[in-house]
Amino acid sequence: RPTIVLFTRDLRICDHPALAAAARSGRPVVPLFVLDRAVRRRSARNRLSYLGDALPALREGLRRLGGDLVVRFGDTVDETLRLAAETGADRVNLSADVSAFAARRAARLREAAEAQRIRVREFPGVTVVPPGEAVPAGGDHYKVFTPYWRAWEGVRWRTPEPAPKRLEVPSGLDPGAVPQRLADSGTGPLSPHRQRGGEVEARRRMDAWLGAACADYEHAGDDLAADATSRLSADLRFGCLSPLELAAAARERTACAPFVRQLAWRDFHHQVCAAFPDLPRRDYRRRDIAWRADESGLAAWREGRTGVPIVDAGMRQLLDEGFMHNRARLITAAFLTKRLRVHWKRGGDHFHAVLSDGDIADNYGNWQWVAGTGNDTRPNRSFNLLRQSRRFDPDGAYIRRYVPELAAAAGPDAHTPWRADPPVPGYPPPLLDED
Ligand code: FAD
Known about the structure:
Bound molecules: flavin-adenine dinucleotide
Organism: Streptomonospora wellingtoniae
Structural class: alpha/beta
EC number: 4.1.99.3
GO molecular function: deoxyribodipyrimidine photo-lyase activity
CATH superfamily of the largest domain: DNA Cyclobutane Dipyrimidine Photolyase, subunit A, domain 3
Enzyme class: lyase
Cofactor: FAD
Number of helices: 18
CATH architecture of the largest domain: Orthogonal Bundle
């Protein structure tokens, strides 16, 4: 009897433990993706666009192995059970995931399937180290990164699984069409310069990154204008790349050690979210912060019209690319929460509606970290906007790239146009006094 492999955010064939186990068993395999009504409604259009690239690429990959991707619409649990009835499948394999939605979905699937004597098995693959494998003595998760990092380094990683050589599939099954124009639905803008998705693209980016640029990461990674980070976050978000395969390949290159550490940050937030699924809604660490309802400040921030160039550059990069450099994410999030005192959830929701890599654990975990309600050991960290601007964009090149009104502003004027004489035409005065 066949095994259904339910794909969710693991849209690849290389190092896919749930797929590899099904293929190894020698039984027929039915790869399934359900375009879940709830997910489609809530997803950012930029992520639906990425998904629209990733699904045909996955189908192509599976076809090369003699298989196919069955695509269905509706509720994931209902559609999986319907396909099980159609094919006689008595096993469902899927990758374990941590968000509240994913955990509820897996629990519902398990309950409904087991009532029909269908066995559901969850596999690793969404993180390098699965939540629960690096656990402190006497606790269920690490609350602080550095001890987590030490434990993470000490975990024995599983060996990456090669893509199956061949899949045996049941015949006579209607695979269903991969939906066209997915990004017509969903929330948020469709960014003109968003990244293309899919396993082939992702592997091309990974090879290029590991081949050369990764070695400069430590020195250039924080330089906003250099744009010298991997840009693999959306590929990891959709599982078009295996985080384990990436981390294992990077670990073989000594110069890539700082990059490997960043991948551990991703796992860190995932294990926090597994233990605290309310991460996108509630303070992880309760603090009495007097948040302000500054709707016009929030709107200016979203549009990149705060009059503070480094903030506006970051926010406009987000709208233009569905991506923002990590340093700019830190600066823009700190501006909103620490200067405007707008609640972290409002900022997190905006990021989540635009980012191609938007991920519940990483996005809201980082927002809470910046706001001081999360896992930062120094929640009252001071934040000097102009110092950040000058340090991480010393020539103002990042600012000029994304804020065309300041294209002619040379040197220091790019950071502080309010001091320019005569004033820069068409650019707003700063929302707050930034001197
Ligand atoms: P690189 O610098 O090349 O890093 C490699 C990978 O490590 C990234 O792709 C990512 O998977 C992981 N990583 C790096 N830094 C972090 C971090 N601080 N937390 C978690 N993972 C990290 N990342 C997301 O993937 N999705 C999000 O929704 C997200 N929201 C964020 C919101 C805020 C306010 C902040 C400050 C950070 C957020 N990040 C998020 C983390 C980080 O900014 C991005 O992962 C990174 O900018 C992506 O670019 P890159 O792939 O070039 O990263």
